[in-house]
Amino acid sequence: MLKQTQLCTHLSVLTDVRSAQEYVCEECIKAGDSWVHLRTCQTCGTTLCCDSSPNKHATRHYHTSQHPVVASAEPGERWLWCYADEQMAGY
């Protein structure tokens, strides 16, 4: 169940939160790079690294795919981030 904590206009299209299928950044692992703080795209399910990582693959994925919402893939974290609205939501 999604709990909107701030205004994000894209949560209404999400029926459920996609869990991480991988616990690696799918782009970094291909290139042999390191990553921190994984995020899972809520549109396609791809697991990517956040802006704390050198490659910022989650942000790059948003800009190339226009998939706006990611969820934290970190154990114990239950939040979503919408790149389009720059808003956070819990679930």
Main attributes?
about 90 residues; 5-stranded antiparallel β-sheet; alpha+beta; 2 helices; globular
Structural class: alpha+beta
Principal-axis shape: globular
Number of strands: 5
Average pLDDT rating: 88
The whole-angstrom Rg is 12 Å
Output the number of helix runs: 2
Strand content: 15-25%
Poorly predicted regions: none
Oligomer: single chain
Helix content: 10-25%
Order of helices and strands: HEEHEEE
Distance between the termini: 6 Å
Report on this model:
By secondary structure, this protein is α+β, with helices and mostly antiparallel strands. 16% of the residues lie in helices and 21% in strands. The protein has two helices and five strands. The chain has helices at 26-31, 57-65, and strands spanning 38-41, 47-49, 69-72, 79-82, 87-90. Strands 2-1-3-4-5 form a five-stranded antiparallel beta sheet. Strand 1 (38-41) and strand 2 form a beta hairpin. The longest helix is centred in the last third of the chain and has 9 residues, at 57-65. The protein is globular, with a radius of gyration of 12 Å. It starts with 25 loop residues before the first helix and ends with a strand.
Question: What is the compact description of this entry?
Answer:
This protein has 91 residues and is of the alpha+beta class. The protein has 2 helices and 5 strands, in the order αββαβββ.
